[in-house]
Amino acid sequence: MISNELTTLLGIDHPIISAPMGGVSGSSLTKAVSQAGGLGLVGVSYGDANFIEHNVAPLQDLTNPWGVGCVMFTFAERPELWKKVLDYAPPVIALSFGDAHQVGYFVHSAANTGAKVVVQVHDVEQAIIAKDAGASVLVAQGAEAGGHHKTQATLPLIPAVVDAIEHQVPVVAAGGFADGRGLAAALSLGASGIMMGTRFALSQESLATPAFTSSLLNATAPELRNTRSFDVVRGIPWDEVYTARSVTNDFVQQWTGRDEELAQARAAIEPAWTKAVQEDDANQRALFAGEVIDLITEVEPAGAIINSTVQEAIQTLELLNRTIAIRV
User: Fold this and answer.
1) CA nearest 294: which of 158, 182, 159, 137?
2) Which residue(s) pair with 293 in the sheet?
3) Per-residue confidence (pLDDT) for residue 100, from 0 to 100
4) pLDDT average, residue stretch 168-173
5) What is the mean pLDDT of residues 50-63?
6) Residue 154 in contact with residue 142, Cβ under 8 Å?
7) Among the ranges given (15-24, 47-56, 206-215, 287-296), the one the predictor scored with the smallest mean pLDDT
8) What's the whole-number mean pLDDT along residues 308-327?
9) By the 8 A CB rule, do 67 and 94 touch?
10) Which terminus, N or C, of the chain has the lesser number of Cβ atoms within 10 Å?
11) Are the CB atoms for 307 and 36 separated by under 8 Å?
12) Are residues 212 and 246 in contact, defined by beta-carbon separation less than 8 angstroms?
């Protein structure tokens, strides 16, 4: 076990959180991560009443801490679904992608239910806003992440956020983590734990489809590309400062960098694209993945991922300690 302020605050055994990935992080993955001693998060993303009901409700009897991850700018438009999430009283609520005004509202309304509130940030300014709003934990996400992210790399971002908030709340490192070496590195940078997305997307309990899983297992980091094309075709109003990293497929190749053209043609393109996604067409669907893709070679149970990550982190830190001691 690696115990610190994060594990104590959240009531977990290991400083590992599974990212609330939309369409991937359902109740099974959340339960598996939490039962293994980490913090599992259901990814309700843009708000879908049926998904919330089928993936949040089953967790209410879970004795281990668990949580729900919400994209703020979409729940701001659908307050009835925000209320639906709060009514399930998750022990932890993870918030991401909201402007400065939205952060305060969502943090306060979540905290009023008794939940620990985790807020994802991408730069120092966002970190200070979230800390001042009352966040219990900050997740500092670097640009190596899969899915949506900004531009600052993880390595300089983590200590910058830790210093800026003056250690007032725990910081979790995200973006570029898939094993124990990454956990050891994050702890060395001043973080209290890590959030892993791509690694848990390729777990036995994830909702990842066969084409998604196969595409990620066979991809390499040079095949990944930042794009806004999936947001444009879905008509989701993402701030242009965020792009999403995906395995390059036919859709990415055709439309990346042609946002205005795609937006104008969306009415004609979206129905066929949606049908292709429903059919799990890897040439068309989003294949979000982080730069850690080269480190993942097989699908494993979430519990095994957590155990191996913790053990490798301990071994890495012990090896570093012996090496430094010998040189001194």
Assistant:
1) 182
2) none
3) 84
4) 97
5) 94
6) yes
7) 47-56
8) 86
9) yes
10) C
11) yes
12) no
* Size (the chain), residues: 328
Closest listed residue to residue 25, CA positions, set 38, 13, 11, 12: 38
The span from the CA of 116 to the CA of 6, in Å, is 11
Structure confidence at residue 224 (pLDDT) = 98
Segment 128-143 mean pLDDT: 97
Radius of gyration of the chain (CA): 19
Token digits of residue 247: 């395995």
* pLDDT for res 103: 95
Which residue reads 């066929």 in tokens? 272
Does the pLDDT value for residue 328 go beyond 60?
Answer: no
Torsion of the alpha carbons at 273, 277, 283 and 285, rounded to the nearest 10: 90
C-beta pairs of 156-163 under 8 Å, 24+ apart in sequence = 157/122, 157/123, 158/186, 158/189, 158/190, 158/191, 159/189, 159/190, 160/124, 161/121, 161/124, 161/127, 162/189, 162/190, 162/191, 163/190
Q: State the average pLDDT over residues 35-47.
A: 94
- Complete DSSP assignment for 213-254: HHHHHH--GGGEEEESHHHHHHT----TT-EEEEE--HHHHH
* Structure tokens given for 175: 């973006």
Q: Who's near 124: CB < 8 A, 6+ residues apart?
A: 160, 161, 164
CA diameter of the chain: 67
Give the separation between CA 266 and CA 197, rounded to whole angstroms. Answer: 29
Structure tokens at 223: 């095949």
Q: Give CA angle at 148 (257, 166), nearest 5°.
A: 130
The CA distances from residue 298 to 16, 22, 34, 52, 119, in Å, are 19, 21, 21, 29, 30
Collapsing DSSP to helix, strand or coil, 227 comes out as: strand
Distance, in Å, from the CA atom of 282 to the CA atom of 212, rounded to the nearest integer, reads 7
Q: What are phi and psi of 179, to 5 degrees?
A: -155, -175
The pLDDT tens digits of the residues spanning 107-121 come to 999 999 999 999 999
> How many other CB atoms are found less than 10 A from the CB of residue 195?
30
Contact 97, 120 (CB under 8 A): yes
